[in-house]
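Chapter summary example: a protein plus cobalt (II) ion.
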Amino acid sequence: MINVKTSNELLKMRKAGIITGGALVKAGEVIHEGMSTYELDRIIHDYIVSHGAKPSFLHYNGYPASACISVNDTVIHGIPSKSEKLKKGDIVSVDVGAYIDGYHGDSAKTFAVGEISDKAQALMDSTEGSLKAALEILRPGIRIGDISALIQQYNEDRGYSVVRQFVGHGVGRNLHEDPEVPNYGRAGHGPRLVAGMVIAIEPMINEGVPDVKILPDGWTVRTADGKLSAHFEHTAAITPDGCMIMTMPE
Ligand code: MF3
Ligand code: CO
């Protein structure tokens, strides 16, 4: 069942989204060479808590941190660690969620540490570009498959591959609600959007093969071939004439 939110609920979701987006702005400000992913997670944690919210991911299905921090060939769900230090040339996907007044925000962004290679930048640009293009077509009447097909085509046209094992999702009182929002699929298929639905669109795009492996820790998702991966995500509400990006920072 896809929940349709009232305007009052959307106001609360915007509040959660502003804190979520703000946490990513903070992450971008503090990220630097030599920093551990644990330190970055603490800063994100403190930002969320100091704004009166709770980190959505902390203890979710036993997840042990506030942010997912995924470096280079880690696609998603990288667990912050004191021993993992960021290096010049790394690309770092930071995924955060904030929960306040009964609602979640969910957003992710891939950052560069210092100067990065042209090919890493191009992968990030394609992933982010596909998210922006998807947000531009959001309006009542389109179908989930229209979003999926756009993201797949956008990235495959540029020579990249789409991760299939993980998908975007509805967001609301729960971090993960219906519908699933795959980053691959066929236009004209899937549920139709109506105003008040809220979805997280989150392309996870690989430089090489689409296949991934999950490490024995049960969380960390890496590319099967060790090549780079990027991840961008926004939570967006469908409005009568388009969408409102709930996790856009103020
Ligand atoms: N943004 C991720 C998602 O949408 C969330 C993290 S999973 C968690 O699935 F378990 F770490 F919370
Ligand atoms: Co998500």
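Key point: The chain is about 30% helix and 25% strand.
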